[in-house]
Amino acid sequence: MKKKTLIKLSITFIILLGLGFWINSRWSAWFHNEEEAPYSPLNQPGRVLLTFGDNNELSRNISWQYDSIVVPSHVDLVDTLCKDTIRIPAQGEIFRSRSGQAAYYVARLRSLQPDHYYTYRVCNEDNVSPWYHFRTYNSSTRNDYSFLYVGDVQDSINGKANTFFKEAFQQHSDTEFLVFGGDLTERPTEQRWEETYRGLDSIGQCYPVLTVTGNHDYLKYVIRKLERRFSLVFSYFLDSMIGENQVYTLKYNDMQLFCLDSNREFLYLWTQKQWLEKELKKSTARWKIVILHHPLYSIKGEMNNLSQRLMFNSLVEQYGVDLVLQGHEHAYARMTNHADNGDATPPVYTVSHCSPKNYYIQFDKRFDKFGTGSRYYQQIRIHGDTLTMNAYDAIDNSLYDSVDIIKSDKGNIKLNNRGQNIPEKLIFQSNGSKKEEAFRMRIEEYKHRKGIE
C-alpha cells in the first residue's frame, strides 16, 4: 500500500472515529425521550384552560379533560349583567399517549360581548367543574391595555411557577391575558403536564392563555413529533394550524400577535414563512408583535438558529414588526435595531425565561442588555402612541429593563431606552469546571467592556 494512500485512510479513520464519538455524545440530546409513567384519566372534569379562539379578539375557547371515553358535554356560560345562562356544546376527542389515554374537550365561545363579565363551568353529563370567571376587556375605543409575556417555564415537579405568576398578576392587576414563548411544559408526559396545570392554577381559568411551541413540547425523532394533546389543550391551534405547523395570529384592539412554530424542520419553516408574509402583508394593526421560541439572533452562539433567522427575519424587518418575543436560551437579553444614522429603531428583540434552569450565554455586542442567573417576565403595554416593554425580575418583581416605542400620527418612530440606567445583574457562581470557568471569564470580560462594577 502506498504511503499516500495509507495517510488518507488514516485521516479518514480519525475523522470517522471523531464523528462517531461526537454523535454518541449528542445521541441522547437528539433522540432520548423522557419515559412517561402509566396514568389514569381524571374522574371529575378538570384541567380547565381558557384561551383565545380563532374567530376574532372576542372569541374564546375552553378546554378540559375528563375520563377516557367521550360523553355528552357542554359549558354553562352566564353573562353576569343580564344573568342569562347559555349552554355551549363541546367536542370531545380521545387522545392516547405512550402510557395511557384520556378524553379532551373543547368548547368554542363565539357570541361574547366587549367589556363584559362572565362566569362558566364545564359539564360532562352530571359531572361539573367549579365555577370560574373571566372578563372580555376589548373595545375598539380602548387605547391602554397590556398583557404579560413569559419565556420558557419548564418547571420542576412541585416548582415555583404558580407563585411567580400570581405575584406578577398581583403587581399588574390590569393584565388582560398571558402569553408564553414555548417550553411551558418540561417534557410531553402526563406527569409534566400535571405540573403545568398546577403552575396555571387560578390563572389559566380566568385569563386567556396563548403559547407557541418549543423544543421541549416535541417528542424527539428524526422528524420531530408534536403530540395531538398539545393542540387539544391549546385548542386555538385546532382551527389555525397550517398543515402540521402550529401557527396562530390574534388581532387585539390595534395590536396583532403572530405566533410561529420555530422548532420545525426547514421545509416546515418555509411553509410558515409564506403564512407569516401573507398575514403581515394584510395586517392593518398599528402594533405588530412576533412570538417564537428560538431567538432569531442567538445568545448561545452566532451559528445557532440560522434557519429561523433566514426564514423570518427579513419579513420582520420588511413589514414593520415592532417587537419580537423569544425564549429557549434561558437568560434575559434585549437587542435593538439601528438605522443607517445609528438611531435605535424597531424591531426590538428580547430573549427571556422563567425556568429554574439557567444557560451559559455569549455576550454578543449587538445586544443592549443581558441578565443571567434569575427568572424574568415582561409586561407589554399599549398606551396611546406608545408600546412599552417592561421586563421584571420574577424573584422580587423589580423592574429590570424598559423600552418605549413611540409612533407619531405623522409616521415618525422613536425609541426610548429607559432600561439603560437600570443595573445589569449577571449572577453566576462557578464550581470550578472548565465550562463554568469559561463562562465566568466571559462575564468578567463583558463587565469590563461595559464598565460594570
From TrEMBL:
Source organism superkingdom: Bacteria
InterPro entries listed in its UniProt record: Calcineurin-like_PHP, Metallo-depent_PP-like, PAPs-like, PAPs_N, Purple_acid_Pase-like_N
Claim: Signal is one of the keywords in the record: yes
Residue stretches making up the Purple acid phosphatase N-terminal domain: 45-136
Domain Calcineurin-like phosphoesterase: 147-332
A Pfam entry, by short name: Metallophos
Statement: the UniProt record of this protein carries the keyword Signal: yes
Keywords, ordered alphabetically: Signal
Protein name: Metallophosphoesterase family protein
Species of provenance: Phocaeicola acetigenes
Lineage: Bacteria, Pseudomonadati, Bacteroidota, Bacteroidia, Bacteroidales
